[in-house]
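Let us practice reading a record.
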Amino acid sequence: MTQKPTGAVSAHNAKVMNRFDLTKRLVATLKHDEAVIGGIGNANFDLWATGQRPQNFYMLGSMGLTIPIAFGVAIAQPERHVVALEGDGSLLMQLGCLATVAMRAPKNLTMVVWDNGVYQITGSQPTPTAATADLVAVARGSGLANSNWAADEDDFDRLFAAALKSGGPNLIAARIDSKPAVGATDRDPVQIRERFMRGIGGKK
């Protein structure tokens, strides 16, 4: 069922929130071994800081590939809900993935986009979302009808809870501040991969 847009919420009037706070709220609602793919940099740093679930995958150096990886996991394991945590700069590098997700329409995929309008880990250069681009409008134009801006923390919780229960794919965008991540992910690609593969039952 298609969710109705949340009132008149847009990129311009949504509350600016904190990425780590929202990540904690999101992870606290996961009760069924949902897989979570954390995008490069601060998205996965904050995911790591919430506690290392074996169903979490922490991307290292693959800018723009969070949603494609989550999409692949969602197709491979249709019974498991998959969540992608992506930044605005990374998504802008791979906008075509939205149209591909919309065409295949996996019901078990939720994409969360953290939008602070800057490439934060490379020096806080402004992204196009700081000026003209609206990623929810882009997602809807790509065919993702269940795409919404979160008005505030309570609205974010509501949208995410609905995404876990209803058919997807869903995209939730949140305006966030530019505070640094709480910690940093251990940079061991082999360990990250092996733990995730075991966590989703892809490897004994």
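A brief commentary: The chain has a mean pLDDT of 90.
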